[in-house]
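Two proteins, back to back. First:
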Amino acid sequence: MRTTPRSKSLFTAWLFLGAAACGGAGETATTPPAEVSDASTTGDASTTGDATAASDAGTTSDAGPLPPVTCAFEIAASGAKLCAIDPTKTTPGVTDTFGFHAVGFPATVTADTPVYVHFVGTGGDPAKPATQTFPNQLLMEELTALGALVLLPAYDNEPSVGALCKQDLDCYEPVRDEILFGDDAPAPYTSMKDVKKPNDALSRIAALVDALHRSGMLGATPPAALAGGKLDWSKARVGGHSQGGGHAGLIAKRFAVERVCFLSSPIDGAPDGAGGGLPVPWTAGVWATDVSRRRAAVHEDDPGFAKAAANLAAMTMVEDTHWRRLRFATADPHASTVKDPAAAPVRRACVL
């Protein structure tokens, strides 16, 4: 748990069906699970805004052109490279309060390289400068070995949305909006978070992509999803674990994406009093991303399983078609979806 305050309140048959029942892991074994811690590209409706991640990030500042960035530390992995990026080097005003960004580069990058943006769960750092480690190294190595470029942005993920909203079902969307877009949540949720641009998640991602582009780290022919140093959500895949999966889902509801992957998520909501869960309102209604492009994996022993199942049903996602229930033995059901090697086929099918 970091000591830096983060809130005003102190704080094509898809592979799931062919995979053997298996499970995985989360940010840490102590992440509370109650937040705890392909048909068409257009979907149910047009996007609610520009599908290109927008922010004030750019290649210049008042002091002139921004300098290139380099890996603060890196790990070689079977021809691929895992690279930590200091957020403060990407554009002025961006902090390193939430750890370093992590980027997984496959051995070869072309215009056809898939791009996956992954939001870590509560308390998670994509890259830890103190120990020069990547907590999600397994996930990054798996996906880069399959040819994907992986972005794990460091963002404001403490306290968790679940810890703030608890059983107030209407609270989750505006609080997530503030974390993602830097928009002040309306009353009565105004004091729950204090996220301002350029430290909202999407501005931080935009600054990261711009920095990689201006530094030549995307190669001579960058992936189409990152062309020109801008993230085009319509050509990207997005996902996340636990709290992070909910953020990915809200992005996929607002913008049409190539694929959205929920891992041990979304677990917003409340118990229904009968052993099930009550979904949150944001999971229902019209989505910019078609249901055929939504995937999920949740372990049946996850404490948040009932809420996740209720939310997936509200999204019209069908078990064994759009999402997979994991049943294998694991010491940490909530974390298993991202950290257990047995869940590798499920992760691959969810993302790619």
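And the second protein:
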Amino acid sequence: MNDSPLTTTDLNSILNPQADQVFFSEQINGKELSEKAIESTLRPQNLSEFVGQKQVVEQLQVLLKSAQKRKDFPDHILFAGPPGLGKTTLSMIVAKEMETDLKITSGPSLTHAGDLAAILSSLQEGEILFIDEIHRLAKSVQEMLYIAMEDFRVDVVVGKGIGSSSIALPLPKFTVVGATTRAGLLPGPLRDRFGFTAQMEFYTPEELQKIILASAIKLNILIDSDASLEIANRSRGTARIANRLLRRVRDWKEVNSTQHKSISLQDAKNALLLYQVDNLGLDYLDKKVLLALENKFSGGPVGIKTLASSISEETDTIEEVAEPFLVRLGFMSRTSRGRIITQKGQDYILNQERQ
């Protein structure tokens, strides 16, 4: 077995737009990869490869090309939207398009101003600093970031008490790319320092189908077109979920091999039935929430903590995983008195009981 690292050339050879069919393999091009490494290989490498988010991509192209023509650096960029829509991927693409290095950190990991100062002082001119979950930055870190983004300097306090003094350390010009799932939690002064804010939208089934087919080529998976659309329809408008479901359907197919070499529509349905993902994309957790609202609380209203406790789940899990999708489908509603199930949600439960 060849143990050499996977190269860009290897990946380019995998992604062949002319290939309609490729076969299962536990390896990619002879290289054994971890699940995390596989997810990395599925990311598009440039804006032309990126599927969906058409308006955001066009805006980014203008922003980056104009900066390149001026031989300058792009304004600070903020990507806002639900998880799994490509915020991190686009941040990586920004660095590639600008032919510069990307340094990655996250809001929760920067607990003190000194943590940010250490990162900022290590930046080279033109580099990209990507901060995931930027809305979770500590207040002291936010205040340091304001100055660094606007004036490209860090104020360091030397000494203590009356004898202390502040020294301004200049920084090379750089670009901050922030990602947030809760833009409303960003303080105004920080939000205003981003020259470009991109609001990420959910993907259409057709866009997700293109993503699934491209990922299938990269993962050496043979899949029928109607099967890829079936997976897309159950992916909750989210690229990350689409790629995850594709890998789980692949697993099912490898264990339940049939005469049909590629993943068929029926294969996809059988696999997703096993993983309890229905034709709308609802999973076991979503159904537990709806059933609890209807059967334990007579449709609501009920507080989120009480609801979470009733199904032995964390409050954050309900609020961040199940609730946004149920509200988007119109099955559940948030009111000032608590969560309630809607008529549409009750109809869904009734239909499930009849099946």
